[in-house]
Each structure stands twice: as C-alpha cells, then as structure tokens.
Amino acid sequence: MSPLEHAIAENYALRRQYLAFLEDRFGDEFPKTPTPRDIVKRLNLDEVEWRISRRQARLLFDGQSLQWIEDRQVERRWPAVSGKPGFNGKEHQSLKDRGPIPEGSYVALQSDFQKWEEAPAINRAACILNFISIKAGRWPGCTIAWGDTTRRVGPGPGNQRVRS
Fold it and tell me: Which residue has the higher pLDDT, 161 or 49?
C-alpha cells in the first residue's frame, strides 16, 4: 500500500471527501465502495503526487504576505504576519517569543508534519490551556492560528538565526 493509499485508508474524513468527490464526478460508475487503491487509480493521484514532489518552489514572507513562488512567478499569496502584535518589525527579530521569525532562508521539515486530528492529547490540552494564558504545546492559538496542519521550519543553508 502506497503512503497515499495508507493516508486515505487511515483518515476517515479524507476518505469521505474523496468518496463524495468520486460520486459527484463519476456518479454510480463504481458498483461497490472503492478501496483506497481504487480511489488513487481513478483520480490519478499517484501521478499528481509524483508531479508535486518534483516541483521546484519556494515560499517568500515579506512581512505582510506569504507567497508561493514557482518559475520566478508568484503562484499564490496569503496574508500573513509574524511576531506578537506590536513586535512585527525587523528591529524585533532578535526578541525570542515576541518578535517575527528572523530574516533568512528556511526549509520546511518534511519529517515534522503534523495533523490536528492526529496531535497527541497533551498538545490539544496545551492548546486549550493557552486560551487561559498558559503557553505550551505545538499548537499555541489552536487551529485558529495554525490551521489543521503544521510543519516546522528550520534554518536553510547559510542562515544565521540570532535571538536573545
């Protein structure tokens, strides 16, 4: 079973979304409930996954937006901020836990991907406790701040992150 098939098999919500999409797109062409492999084959997801894995893209944060750049063109843009309110400027980059992420090159740590529904109970509890001013866990601010998935970033080649 491929990692994609495994993800569909293990994640009920994801499987339901794919099944609903298949029903909308293809109607009753499947006489039985499709297996994860059937879903991957019918939607050509293994090819899509392969193409995505070969893409050369980068993210650029300019202090006001996060931009997805491919082939030297901005493909997507999202409003974004870094740092606590009032501590968003470059002059605050050295302030740990308050200032914005320091300027530099970063890489997304593919091995550190986490989904909210798979987060350990302790991290979910720490998230909820954060609402009463206890700072802890990987999801401070819960899904309102981070969305349903997180992936940490680490310094890229030549990045000299300095924080006090």
Answer: 49
Residue length of the chain? 164
What pTM was computed for the model?
A: 0.50
> Domain residue spans in the chain?
3-53, 57-103, 105-157
Question: Which residue, 149, 130, 132, 148, is CA-closest to 140?
Answer: 130
- Which of the 8 DSSP states describes residue 97? T
| Residue 76 tokens, joined | 């997507």
Token code pair at residue 3: 């990692």
1-37 burial string, b = 16+ CB within 10 Å, else e? eeebbeebeebeebbeebeeebeeeeeeeeeeebebe
Q: What is the pLDDT of residues 49-92, one digit of tens each?
A: 787 777 777 888 888 888 888 888 999 998 888 888 899 888 99
Helix residue ranges per DSSP H, 11-105: 12-26, 36-42, 45-53
